[in-house]
Amino acid sequence: MSSMRSLTFDAIIIGGGGSGLRAALELAKSGKKTAVLSKVFPTRSHTVSAQGGITCAIASADPNDDWRWHMYDTVKGGDYITDQEAAEYMCSEGPKAVFELEHMGLPFSRFDNGRIYQRPFGGQSKDFGKGGQAARTCAAADRTGHALLHTLYQNNLKNNTTFLNEWYAVDLVKNANGDVVGCISMDIETGEVVHVKAKATVLATGGAGRIYASTTNALINTGDGIGMALRAGFPMQDMEMWQFHPTGIHGAGVLVTEGCRGEGGYLINKDGERFMERYAPNAKDLAGRDVVARSMVMEMFEGRGCGENGDHVYLKLDHLGEDVLGKRLPGIVELSKTFAQVDPAKEPIPVVPTCHYMMGGIPTNVHGQAITQDADGNDKLVNGLFACGEAACVSVHGANRLGGNSLLDLVVFGRAAGMYIESALNDGVDYLAATDSDVEFAMSRINRWDESSGGESVPSLKAELQDVMQNAFGVFRQEDNMQEGVKKLADLRERINNAHLGDKSKAFNTARVEALELDNLMEVAEATAVSALERKESRGAHSRYDYPDRDDVNWLKHSLYFPVEKKLGKRDVNFTPKTVDTFEPKVRTY
Amino acid sequence: MSMLQVSVYRYNPETDSAPYMQEFQVDTQGRDLMVLNVLSMIKEQDSSMAYRRSCREGVCGSDGMNMNGKNGLACITPLSEVVKKGKLVLRPLPGLPVIRDLVVDMGVFYEQFERIQPYLQNDEPAPAIERLQSPEDRDKLDGLYECILCACCSTACPSFWWNPDKFVGPAGLLQAYRFLADSRDTATRERLADLEDPFSVFRCRGIMNCVAVCPKGLNPTRAIGKIREMLLANAT
Predict the structure, then answer these.
(1) What number is the average pLDDT over the span A82-105?
(2) A49 has binding-site annotation
(3) Which CATH number is A245-353's, of 3.90.700.10, 3.20.20.70, 3.30.230.10, 3.40.50.720?
(4) Which residue in the set A102, A154, A508 is minimally distant from B130, CB to CB?
(5) Is the CB of A44 less than 8 angstroms away from the CB of B131?
(6) In the beta sheet, which residues pair with residue A569?
(7) Is A150 annotated in some ligand binding site?
(8) pTM, whole model, 2 decimals?
(9) Domain residue limits at B161
(10) Interface test with B, best of A58, A150, A501 (most B CBs within 10 A)
(11) Element (H, E) at A570
(12) What pLDDT is recorded for position B234?
């Protein structure tokens, strides 16, 4: 242990996607000694796959647009467990953050007047739901995430951010007081394990869609930050809330942007019927994603699915014409040809609801500070620990995220975390150093794998876990199925704790990385399962056959999963925005 | 059973004194899988197989490799496009140092990217909203900004193999032109001055391997031609 190298920074950011790079940029500009640790070269992060755009009231498509309308949509979209103070912050600060991106060089598409192009997306309205469909999603064709991530990486290069690329963060290091004071990390290229010390540790590790068998998420989305925080004993919020995106390509799981429907595309069943007109008479195909996904599943259940097995529906785009497709949706044309062997200018794309986004995560305030609860159930900040982006639950997405809000979330709250950490460092924040035994504790997991001498292999256990989640915790859920799922997960945890890492070599050992990722998938899956089982209502993305209605008496709350006890608690939703009146819960229709 | 014979370049610096090719048999069940799917099946047979991958849909640029002699992305290359006579040969991207198996050290590639100052420079004060840009000016960035830094092009370029330290290479030059072409960038003069030597741009011999392999269908040779024109116009 004494031979282990250590590195010391003011702040470390774990994750090189959008939120991590935005936080890093803020800190690099401040001159603080900052490093980004990323298990992949930053532009390989999953933000790169975001397509349709970043939703924000910049008043380009509509000069009268108002961030308060966007806030209303966001709160309603989240089925009223969105924290209103956080949604207010995101929607009001958003334009500043988007203009900054443009100034950094993001190649947004443009209107004729030279302003940023905005397209309609699901769940968007004018005038608090009374003024019809809004067009509020700022886009760079259908490659907005790629353009955004590269722009942020470029500007970090400009500001000389320190990157530890292809470094895998293994576990958090806590001191004797329970403060987070850095992490254990592995340099993947050499296999060297290093103790990285920091006064602020930011988890910007993104989502964990790979807990499901079918997902739009990159192979790297294994919930590493969630796993680390849970193993360190910190609670997770709203982990039952997983978004199933209506349009993943059938079979491949690859995402087809909601922007397709924003540009005028629509879903049809095997009879060619535009079925969303029945489920959401006003918004139709641009209802909330949870609503559209459920409607699609209903169509398939009732025998109106397409194809030999009736296991998908079609997304029709051919009526948009080759010009619109080529100009606004070129990436979709490419992906459809590659993964569905379909030219959308001629034929519809076979699509199916596919796991896409984790609304839950590490509870934080608007500064990205991680929150836990004291013995009396009051919020308590975790010293030294921050989270932003998909790994965090601030919570702006509540029970269902609106399209285009994830990119806004990650730049607004990445920036906010960076600004807060800068001021905290200026105030001289510092914590007790970790002792050798604290570090040894954080090493126990990687040591376990390195000492394993037999047991089951990682890929088969991973596949089994993904099947359990897919079957018991999908679009529709019910008690007995979930009970069974929880049991299977308990068994899987035991087997994963005894699984075998066959390859113990040092240099670029991706088998070791995948083994460490499997532990994180397990943590995320278990948190999801317990939370889903215990939330006995239907709200947003969490739909139960046995509790089909929303229960505002008991469940107008965040769920809070405590990993040590494996128990679910509750946390109050914030209903006190600072500058606008509270949006009171209403029946949610589109 | 329909077996595909796959021959993969192997090298582990801890145990191998030299690289070698290893043969695998993969049962594709007749499906037209992507090469990345085949690699993942091989990794289930032999967990020590190392390769990079992330998005598995051709936008992150992790899994550039040489497949039956041609560079491309494993995740969007169907077997039907590359397999010849029932055989698939996988090698790392050519010309870069190998770390392990199909994983190359991309350091020199990234250095050339960084060298061209790949970020917008504008010395005028930023407005309170976005900088305006006409759709026509924005169109000039199409075919440039989409680069995913996979290095398929630069590692297919003989000029880059020969002078990776002095010739920026097709990927870096495509990005150089992406900023030269941006109506919002005001550093054109400095950017051109930085490229005005016999190597940075002019080592391009118009071989066009870059165009032939780019998995995003981009055209670095055309971008390089535009930079040449700007350099020549600047010189006169």
Answers:
(1) 98
(2) yes
(3) 3.90.700.10
(4) A102
(5) no
(6) A560
(7) no
(8) 0.98
(9) 106-235
(10) A150
(11) strand A567-572
(12) 85
